[in-house]
Amino acid sequence: MSEPNFDAIFSAIETKKPHLISLLAEAVAIPSVSAEPERRPDIVRMVEWVKKHLEQLGATCELAQPGDQQLSAGSTIPLPPILLGKLGCDPKKKTLLVYAHLDVQPASREDGWHTEPFTLTEKDGKLFGRGSTDDKFCLEGMEESGSEGLEETLKARKDSFLSDVSFTCISDNYWLGTTKPCLTYGLRGICYFTVEVAGPTQDLHSGIYGGTLYEPMSDLVWVLSQLLSKDGQIMIPGLADHVAPLTETEREMYAKMDFDHDEYAKHINTTKLLKATKEETLMARMRYPSLSVHGIEGAFHGAGAKTVIPCKVTGKFSIRLVPDMKPKVIDELVVKHLNELWAQRGSPNRFNPISDPVLITASTTPTCFSAKHLKIQLFGATAFHSGPAWLADPHGPNFQAGARAIKRVYGVEPDYTREGGSIPVTLTFQELTGAPVMLLPIGANDDMAHSQNEKINVTNLVKGTKTLAAYILELAKA
Amino acid sequence: MSEPNFDAIFSAIETKKPHLISLLAEAVAIPSVSAEPERRPDIVRMVEWVKKHLEQLGATCELAQPGDQQLSAGSTIPLPPILLGKLGCDPKKKTLLVYAHLDVQPASREDGWHTEPFTLTEKDGKLFGRGSTDDKFCLEGMEESGSEGLEETLKARKDSFLSDVSFTCISDNYWLGTTKPCLTYGLRGICYFTVEVAGPTQDLHSGIYGGTLYEPMSDLVWVLSQLLSKDGQIMIPGLADHVAPLTETEREMYAKMDFDHDEYAKHINTTKLLKATKEETLMARMRYPSLSVHGIEGAFHGAGAKTVIPCKVTGKFSIRLVPDMKPKVIDELVVKHLNELWAQRGSPNRFNPISDPVLITASTTPTCFSAKHLKIQLFGATAFHSGPAWLADPHGPNFQAGARAIKRVYGVEPDYTREGGSIPVTLTFQELTGAPVMLLPIGANDDMAHSQNEKINVTNLVKGTKTLAAYILELAKA
To answer: What is the average pLDDT score of chain A?
Structure first.
């Protein structure tokens, strides 16, 4: 096989910049919010939009129907279809599975957006819009769907659609900083917990009843206050024993990474981070567990003053998992600790600690690039409860191809990072295909995925497209 | 003055029972919810309805316009008019000021009501409906209005409308149990606090950032956990020094009260109350302060799982005040304690403890009874920030008249109670008129004011009307 003409491809992509932006604008304009059932038709529209574009590229597409989604109100609505695409079918070639997602987080102007979230708006070289960086930025196609049903859909196709996958690439995370690209070889997992404290049958007037009863809210804030020390250490006995020990080689990697500790502190608007050094902060994000308290259901949460004693309150927190923490073992440790705290508390209220009570919706999409050197499979959509961490070998052929692509486009060696967040489908792919998975992020760390004023830089969009193209070409050579 | 014919009056009231119930049904059908701006026209309608009834009784009415209400969204709407009524104007007679309120708490079927909340529904001798017991139950008139502006309206009329008030009667609280009537000579006051902890400029993804920063939510739940011991003791240093000492006479009063400790525990659905004995529980409600944590603004509060790190969270709690606690002093003690806790915590987040940040809306109404023995003044509406406790002498002529009325209707001596809740306008009346105030409750303690399935018993409605009539007649004799 002859060496591909990288320069010609890069210059073709450069020429297509306005087209790339207008495609992204079309995609952003479809408010495919998976958390809002009333937006479900928009997700279906998004899927159809992607399918059309894939078929124009010559892909053969299938829409898998994963069934119904159970809503918390007790009703059900159909899950959006899962789009599975194939481009090329030469059995002599390797198969690359490309994967991202097209559903987005909710967004509205009132949340603090400076522009309309579902109108792609360019300003100072940045493209603002919900989904611009998470995850609608790819060249040709992307597709969104709710959450549930992907794993089943994939398992059912283990020996067909997935049988000849040689590599998987997922582009759904971010650089460490704003200038240097990276490849990602690890993800933290997650266990989600709710702690319910129930007392009176209904809310009570704090004037009439206050002082006579054990109030569920006081019990709950105390329990939640006993999970972390004031310097952010997780206070679950035994949990630290399950964290893989740090090796010297690994420690050196953190020292070399392009990461500005002070800039990071400024970015999150604090005068003091939990950790004192760059290396410790990187390790806290990448290779150690963390615990966050997210909120309380059932208590007064509005503005102003209300004097009710809530009768039943439910605290929510989650723990990010790292190797070698197993979700089931961690669940047990946490529930044991919660029950011990409760015994200490001595309250007559009813206590119910639950691990992973609900689905945490994740989402996925096919991304596609029209390289003829590889047979490419495309598709999307998943759901997950808790999930374990993921750790890959950053020295295999998949990562080598990614690194060469980055070198070609950016002229530098990438950092090798691990991501603090969780993309559980990564593990599903690895397990079902038995082939290596790589995360190849395109966006910068200030893109504000999941938050207000999400954006992607025009340069990231264009260079990212070149990188994905070069990666496929490099992989074909491997 | 000849002895009034109590029997004839009681039997006239008995005959009018269907009329009483139909009046109450008309009043309940007007959804005069003061917390919902869109219901404001319903409050005006309620005021007009009462005014019409008062004028039919011969009262001279004035509608005072207290100005505008500032809504949290930044807009304003007009406060409802305050109705001031006079019935009789013989300067040789004493003047009784009768006071209650007509605005109600929000209510909707979905909250767990078994009947339509704004349709009075009779079942097993109980009249269910929002406002049935709080506070639309009086015979002839009642009026509702939002909150703000009453105090100013009253102050401006200190030397006119209020100049010759000899006694005040407010019927806006409840019996201790379900069978024995009481007169109430004390109320707890309230101080309301918010504690804001602010960190990042916007919400963060707990996967990407978790483990590196001091999370505001962890700081806040810890601060809130340090306000009460696990057995419900307030942990604000110095606060207990401001509580008036218990006297032996007072202790004996609690021992004599008609109150079933086990029944109370069952009523609030607990196997263990904070206090072990009837007397201690009564004192905890009536003569000791209490602290309740109401909720958190800014954190995740919905159903399901969300993995965000909230950037700014605001805890809400209040303390019920008793003699001799002065709100200003208590505010200072609490804010000092919060700041000390914060110094201990050592977090770089921004901490802002505020006392009494917002108006707590209260509400009032005129109630009227057409006795000719007294000149009666009628009216309603107030607003308050925090308010101190109130304590009256239960042995003066106002209480004696109330006790004789109860004896006539129920055949028993009333209990003399203090109420755990706050009705700050009580103090306003006492201060502006210089005359004694008495609380004369009509409803039973299971009437569920402010909660789902609020009701008043038919017997309480009828006997309460008789009691109010007898009270006015007894007061005229005093």
So the answer is: 84
